[in-house]
Amino acid sequence: MPISALIVDDSSVMRKIVERSLRQAGIDLTKVLEAGNGAEALVALRDNAVDLILCDINMPVMDGLEFIKQLPTVPNAKDVPVVMITTEGSESHVVEALSHGARGYIRKPFTAEQVKEHVVPVLGGKS
Amino acid sequence: MKSPNDLHSGNGAHADWIPLLETATREVFELMLGCQLTLPSEHQEAGDDVTAMVGLAGQLCGVLSVRCDGKAAALMTSKMLGVPLDKVGADVSDALGEVCNMVAGNFKNKIAGLAEGCMLSPPTVVTGSDYSLHSLAESPGLAISLLFERMPLVVSLQIHS
To answer: Does the distance separating the beta carbons of A58 and B115 come in below 8 Å?
Structure first.
């Protein structure tokens, strides 16, 4: 099933790599939104419904952990699965992200196969 | 045979980190660019057109940098994005900054205690060769030389504490 995704990362190169990895993983993307930080992502979600959010942690303005804490305040986004993609390997970041509702955690560097392993299960059959 | 990188551990402090730095760098290039880095037969200076730096703070304080010439940086960008070399445009600095960020993150995650106790700054990228870098590091630091598509690439870690 085709899905729409929001990719949140302060690097435009990384946003493109994540999108390419999703497509290489066989995920049928109909719409891809991009945001450079958590604040931009919250704004984008107020006007756009998506099926999946992939989010970096270390970003200026609003980081990924603050973003997932605030995500439930956006009515049409509170149930959207979020997968974190980050260089941060600390266990405390993983625990904090998961405790605030993240459904998966991918460490950079990553392969398209790893993206598939973490993303497909959270889509609940939509992919 | 010794790797040329065995020779670049400054005053010998943290020399055991050199293989970890090399592995961290190789993994980033294999997974994100789909290419194998090779060892130069002898230490080669990279061109200094593009230098990306990431600061480390916490249990390890210092600066990790990745340095190469502009042609190598453009080819890295091309491989990361999967676009032709002549289409990479302004993404080169962003791409090299991300390479440096991933090498720094992958490196610290390989050292016990640092994944939790060391934070990374956003990358800074300097282009051009007409600059001087003055470090207040307490040790000469570590450096490894590798070849990316036969072009020199230098990854160094200046350790402040």
So the answer is: no
Q: Are B116 and A107 a contacting pair at CB < 8 A?
A: no
**CB of B11 closer than 8 Å to CB of B141:** no
The whole-angstrom separation of Cα B16 and Cα A124 is 45
- Domain annotation for chain A: domains and CATH numbers: 3-122 (3.40.50.2300)
CATH 3.40.1550.10 fits B49-159, yes or no: yes
Chain-chain contact of A87 with B81 (C-beta, under 8 angstroms): no
B89 φ, ψ to 5°?
55, -130
List pLDDT tens digits, range A7-61: 999 999 999 999 999 999 999 999 999 999 999 999 999 999 999 999 999 899 9
Which tokens hold the place of B107? 């490196």
User: Which candidate from A20, A89, A92 shows the least CB-CB separation from B109?
Assistant: A89
Asked if this assembly's ipTM is beyond 0.95, the reply is no
Share of chain B above pLDDT 70, in %: 84
CA distance B24 to chain A (A): 10
Q: Which residue among B28, B94, B102 places its CB closest to the CB of A12?
A: B94
